Amino acid sequence: MIILQDVAYQLGLPIDGQYINGCLTDFVRHIEGGCLAWVWFEELLGVLPPANCIDKFTMKCTWFQETFSELPQGADNGTVSRYARVYIMMLLSTQLFGDKSGTCLHVRWLPYVARLEDMGQYSWGSAALSWLYRCMRCLVNRNVVKLAGTLQLL
Q1: Residue predicted with more confidence, 110 or 32
Q2: How does pLDDT run across 35-69, given as a tens digit for each residue?
Q3: Cα distance between residue 35 and residue 39, in whole Å
Q4: Which residues belong to any copy of the Aminotransferase-like plant mobile domain (predicted)?
Q5: Which contiguous run of DSSP H or E holds residue 54?
């Protein structure tokens, strides 16, 4: 059985700190100032994906990879922060909290990457383990053929 200490040891993720809340019941507006999620996305990352790369609150990984593949030479601090946010969002959406497709990134991570200096205050290990348990629970359905989650722990 995989326990929280395994997550901390194997992935080096913090297991103490603030909890991660991925609830999206009213994500049309973000909590901070009531800003629309995609407006906030553009403010943080400096660009919006084209409409054909967006599906509700997810966007295609390929667009992220093409748009942010290489940090420009002589980038200022703002550009470096944008690229760091993108990289972290990709890690969260594909490695720690991936879905079965592995092709989409979710905007649910915006509140966490908005303040890069606060990223270490969250219990990412607890959230990753909870997500893996949730994904494994879905496997009991005999129609499910793929497993999502932090598969490195298995």
Answers
A1: 110
A2: 677 788 888 889 988 888 888 878 888 898 899 99
A3: 7
A4: 2-154
A5: strand 54-55
Instruction: For 143, list phi and psi in degrees, rounded to 5.
Output: -85, -10
For 77-114, the pLDDT digits (tens) are 999 999 999 999 888 888 888 776 777 888 888 888 88
**23: exposed, middle or buried (Cβ count in 10 Å: 0-12, 13-18, 19+):** exposed
Residues in the chain: 154
- Residue 98 to residue 135: CA distance in whole angstroms: 10
**In what order do the strands lie in the sheet containing 58-60?**
54-55, 58-60, 104-106
Q: CA separation (Å) from 8 to 2, 15, 134?
A: 11, 6, 18
Any idea what DSSP says for residue 149? S
Can you give the pLDDT at residue 86?
92
Which pTM does this prediction carry? 0.81
**Smallest Cα–Cα separation from 103: which of 116, 112, 90, 120?**
90
Beta bridge partners of 23: none
